[in-house]
UniProtKB/TrEMBL annotation:
Signal peptide: none
This protein's name: BPL/LPL catalytic domain-containing protein
Organism, as annotated: Trichoderma guizhouense
Stored InterPro entries: aa-tRNA-synth_II/BPL/LPL (IPR045864), BPL_LPL_catalytic (IPR004143)
Cross-referenced PROSITE patterns: BPL_LPL_CATALYTIC
Domain called BPL/LPL catalytic: residue spans: 88-305
Domain of life of the source: Eukaryota
A GO molecular-function annotation: lipoyl(octanoyl) transferase activity
């Protein structure tokens, strides 16, 4: 088991792959955030930071970034076939971020009553001291309808959100089906958790996401999955609980306010919760962790045989 220095390997791996990292400040439709973009062989990685003091980004800003790139894909695909060139085709892009507290609802989910919505929006006390920029704040969570399937889930500080935006039928890499794309997201997350934290996980066809194996007790979900596509251009992705609170009362534990994705009898967990005492003294740089996930994901993007749990290793 490793401690903080393992994160240095993320930086070394990124350099060894000759990623070009650029930082820029974007201002679009009144929203401003810093974006760090890494360019590898094909996959672009854009990590969003809207608030420099916390490293957080609003869910709406991340959606804006996603939809702009998705729109570029759809515009290109809408051109007459003779007018398209691979040179002008948008590249696949991974958008990663750490969200301000937001409860999201599935597209087929019934609207919440005013009381249910007010319950989720109650102040949430967030204390995350393992970040490069420790967070000690009282937040008022948002509630937002999304175009994914499933029921209510949560995104917030201490959680790594990863949204690959790509054309599943691109000629630049082996094609995906909807199911193989979802499986690749899960497999990448499983490999990431094993490589970085020695956490063994499993998946369940009937319950999307990544789960921690337990010899006893209730099943524990460590990463959520939500996928949407339009004309084979993807949106949304996965969210991994790193050090988000998963214990305590509703004032500090957002998962205590609802039944995650409607799965009665199942618990939410996190990397810190699973590591227990081993996590003492560790710190987590969300952008570094996102870069490591991106590296694993790109292996499977380019080579379909590496889209399984062990990525062909």
């Amino acid at each position: 088991m490793w401690h903080v220095p393992r994160l240095q390997l993320v930086r070394a791996a990124a350099l060894s792959r000759r990623h070009l990292v650029q930082k820029a400040t974007l201002s679009i439709e009144g929203r401003r955030w810093e974006t760090t973009t890494s360019r590898g062989t094909l996959l672009e990685h854009q990590h969003l930071t809207e608030d420099d003091s916390t490293g957080l980004t609003s869910y709406e800003s991340a959606e804006d970034a996603q939809e702009r790139h998705r729109g570029a894909f759809l515009t290109w695909k809408g051109l007459p076939e003779k007018s398209r060139t691979e040179h002008e085709c948008p590249r696949p892009r991974l958008i990663s971020f750490e969200s301000t507290p937001t409860f999201t609802l599935g597209r087929r989910q019934d609207d919440l009553t005013q009381d249910q919505k007010a319950h989720l929006e109650r102040p949430l006390d967030v204390h995350l001291l393992r970040h490069p920029q420790p967070i000690r704040m009282l937040f008022h969570p948002q509630v937002k309808k999304t175009n994914r399937g499933g029921l209510t889930t949560y995104h917030g500080p201490g959680q790594l959100v990863l949204w690959p935006v790509l054309d599943m039928h691109s000629s630049l890499y082996p094609k995906y089906s909807v199911s193989t794309f979802a499986s690749h997201l899960e497999a990448t997350t499983q490999q990431f958790l094993l490589d970085m934290f020695d956490i063994e996980t499993y998946t369940n066809r009937d319950e999307p996401g990544v789960w921690v194996r337990a010899s006893s007790g209730q099943p524990r979900k460590i990463a959520a999955l939500g996928v949407h596509h339009r004309r084979y251009v993807t949106a949304l992705g996965t969210a991994i609980n790193i050090d988000v609170s998963v214990k305590g009362g509703e004032d500090v534990n957002p998962w205590a306010r609802f039944v995650p994705c409607g799965l009665e009898g199942k618990l939410a967990t996190s990397v810190v919760a699973e590591l227990g005492n081993t996590a003492q003294g560790m710190s987590f740089d969300i952008s570094d962790l996102a870069q490591r996930w991106a590296s694993i994901f790109e292996e499977g993007l380019m080579d379909a045989s590496r889209r399984g749990v062990d990525l062909g290793r």
